[in-house]
Amino acid sequence: MKKIISILFLGFAIIGCETPSSQDSDFPTFIDSEELEGLANTIQDALNSGDVETALTYYADEASWLFPNGVEVEGKEAIGEMLTTTSSMWDISSSDDTNYLAFEGSDENEEGEEVRFRVLMSWGPTTFTNDDTTITIPYHSVQVFFGEDNKLGWQSGFYDRTKFVEYYDEDIIK
Length: 174
Hints:
Elements: H1 2-16, E1 29-31, H2 34-48, H3 52-56, E2 59-66, E3 72-74, H4 76-89, E4 91-94, E5 99-108, E6 114-129, E7 134-146, E8 151-158, H5 162-167
Parallel strand pairs: 2-8
Antiparallel strand pairs: 1-5, 2-3, 4-6, 5-6, 6-7, 7-8
């Protein structure tokens, strides 16, 4: 009985939530994720080919990357160093079972100027491969793109790092 009530409540909650259009609300609105998926795939393809320089052209100078262990890499240069290390160790691929959700909105920055942002969330199995091993894990990612030029300003991955820590002699993300 509790399941039925929960399902009914969730159903009414979903039906009652109408996505506002950007003209009616200050809240972010859902958008087609295809363009942001393309940006994310272009970055990943560059990294898998060892072209960190090209991947970094998509990052803002003040970008940051948050890892599930709480470590945050801040700044384009530091992210470049981290990507050089990790891309030399792993080829990374997402499954066809990866799900995407994207939305856009705007907010004021510290100077009171309006800043446009677009967010791509993805989740699904991700495979990390090299000559020695293959690790497939459930992976959740959030990427936030800012401004008209869609520079990647913030990124975070949420996943179980246990298999990676077992693989490394020393954890490279700490």
